[in-house]
Amino acid sequence: MRILTATEFLRQRSTIDPVSARPEVRDAVERIVGSVKRDGDSALRQLTETFDGVKLKEFKVPKTALEKAWKRTPAALQKALQAAAKNIRTYQMSLKPGKKSDVSPRPGVKITTEWRPLPAVACYAPGGRAIYPSTVLMMCVTAKVAGVDKVLLTSPPARDGLPAQPILAAAHIAGVDEVYALGGAQAVAAFAIGTASIPRVPKIVGPGNAYVAEAKRQLFGTIGIESVAGPTELAIFADETADPALVAVDLAAQAEHDPDARTLLVVPHVDQARAIQQAAEELVRGAARNAILQTSLLEQGLIVVAPSDAEIVACLDAYAPEHVELLCKKPERLSNQLRAAGTIFLGLGTPAPLGDYTTGANHVLPTGRSARFASPLSVYDFMRMVVTQKVDGKGLADIGPSAIEIAKAEGLSMHAEAVRRRLK
Known about the structure:
Blueprint: E1 2-5, H1 6-12, H2 23-39, H3 41-52, E2 60-61, H4 63-72, H5 75-95, E3 100-103, E4 109-117, E5 120-124, H6 133-146, E6 150-155, H7 165-174, E7 178-181, H8 184-193, E8 203-205, H9 210-219, E9 224-225, E10 233-238, H10 244-255, E11 262-267, H11 270-285, H12 290-299, E12 302-305, H13 309-319, E13 323-327, H14 332-335, E14 343-346, H15 352-357, E15 383-391, H16 393-409, H17 413-423
Parallel strand pairs: 1-12, 5-6, 5-8, 6-7, 8-9, 10-11, 10-13, 11-12, 13-14
Antiparallel strand pairs: 2-7, 3-4, 4-15
Helix pairs in contact: 1-13, 2-3, 2-8, 2-9, 3-8, 4-7, 5-6, 5-7, 6-7, 8-9, 10-11, 11-12, 16-17
């Protein structure tokens, strides 16, 4: 882990460029998307055999497979998944907007705003280096609360031709309508384009590898997406009250996801930086995912020494990470100043893994500095705002002349005429 001053960090690494696909990934995804467009299901079968090593006749997973997966799930995990799903549901219900609102900016003018759920959505659950039943809950429970008619889940098949058992168990408890054994860029293409076996849907959400992310990027517009997800990110500010060993394990908890995971530690004193650096090195030596942590944390991780609150906030906002932990006294004083973070964990008792699993807040979060403008996944991602407008005679007399003047200024004579004839 390199140690930098705040000035050095803000000058040399003040930004993280959004994740862009390597040329070979971009080209491979273009070929995959093209083959799905051209050959439909036959392309999906060939690609699934090539990338997942399994021959499939059917992509749709029978409901009985979900029920069996749930019954085979250990009781302790069943209880944990049920608790997590309940907390997610409760939180998202609190966010769900009211059905209708009416506003009259002028007498005789009425604007009605109504939130309507999407008719269908596909949720992508990874199945490669790690499997995430928690992500299934985060996506699918949220979509159900939003009122989506058909919540579909897609995840790569294992050797038995089905997605991983914990994925199916989470899909069962989330009330998913249909599950498909399909992964990779070809899954995104299938739901964007539609095939004989795979329904076309208006939106797909969820994290995946570089090929999944690039497929979402290339197909955006053909299908809606919530974001192009990059490697996971964590920034921690730790003051002198934080135990170096505790800070180190929190950094490692995020870094163990992936060799490309990104971590930033901000501390007020260089001695503290060195103590946490040493604690991290000791922790990695005995860790189960040692090789990943060696790369993501020890080789790529950064430590910034920032003595003042202004420098701390500047560094965290410049990093604009997915997760921020404030392991310090009175964390609210910093939290209230931050403008670019996916989610913020306040105090020593609130590590990021609690948000990953059981607080009820969503862990599908903006990455690649998109926290500067994007938000966590929520019911709003599965709904559309529909606006209707109605103007009566009194309203037309009031606002019509202004509309004509603006139309004339823009050189759009038929706009003006459409209003003028009604005024007559």
